[in-house]
Prior knowledge:
Layout: H1 2-34, E1 40-49, E2 53-65, E3 69-71, H2 73-82, H3 86-101, E4 109-113, H4 116-120, H5 124-135, E5 142-147, H6 148-152, H7 155-168, E6 171-177, H8 184-189, E7 194-197, H9 199-202, H10 209-224, E8 228-231, H11 237-245, E9 250-251, E10 260-261, H12 265-274
Parallel strand pairs: 2-4, 4-5, 5-6, 6-7, 7-8, 8-9
Antiparallel strand pairs: 1-2, 1-10, 2-3
Domain EAL: 24-273
Protein name: Diguanylate cyclase
Amino acid sequence: xxxxxxxxxxxxxxxxxxxxxxxxxxxxxxxxxxxxxxxxxxxxxxxxxxxxxxxxxxxxxxxxxxxxxxxxxxxxxxxxxxxxxxxxxxxxxxxxxxxxxxxxxxxxxxxxxxxxxxxxxxxxxxxxxxxxxxxxxxxxxxxxxxxxxxxxxxxxxxxxxxxxxxxxxxxxxxxxxxxxxxxxxxxxxxxxxxxxxxxxxxxxxxxxxxxxxxxxxxxxxxxxxxxxxxxxxxxxxxxxxxxxxxxxxxxxxxxxxxxxxxxxxxxxxxxxxxxxxxxxxxx
Length: 283
Ligand code: C2E
Ligand code: MG
Ligand code: MG
Ligand code: MG
């Protein structure tokens, strides 16, 4: 009976697997033309500084597929990486985000995520320099976010790349800190401006002492090394208040603002000026 059950289960599993695979194959094929067809768009999620309101936005890529609808980056970015398309998409992304940011108040920054294929691409630093030139954005208004997983590959040239980006004047953030290896040697060796604490440590913050201890330590560590700290995934007022009390430099999350399309930013800024963002956080 066990064998039959097993086989039956295996057959069902295979069929749904097949559907998933066919869907993935369909997506992969349409990913090749998505850029030319103008199917990508960007949403911007605010960064908020306690007491000083909005200080910038993170650019988050979305794909509007004509049949499937909006596909999140967690689904299509790994495909684009595997098919060697991410470098070109990333270039488009950075240029669009910089073009948008020059229209914002001049102290606002724009953060753009770099996947490993983009970071490891030989032409990255030239390309960043070109886009700064082309869009006329001040270099220090641009933040590039990388995760530790990016640094795990090809360690020797990584420092060169980061140093060159640093010389160009852009800022570099370590994204999702705490979820990968969290090797402290990265913090010693690489010139990050900001560490972003992964939302995993933020979600239980109000009730879980371990999360509190970890977050407090990351804040102290970052400040001790002269880096700023951003908390990701702040969803409640309690989390925001706790983070402010502990000296976290910037907050990001649904409590402070959802990702919104570029066209909605003007309205968002007008509203938050009238009803200050995170008004409850001002002391
Ligand atoms: P990330 O850079 O860590 O971005 C934060 C993710 O958390 C975003 O998901 C954002 O929408 C979501 N988020 C923000 N606030 C909250 C909150 O309060 N609660 C919860 N539960 N989630 C929140 P999204 O947009 O789906 O992006 C997922 C990941 O995809 C990003 O993680 C980033 O690694 C990657 N990604 C997005 N856009 C790009 C891009 O243009 N290039 C590259 N290479 N990667 C990108
Ligand atoms: Mg990010
Ligand atoms: Mg992150
Ligand atoms: Mg994250």
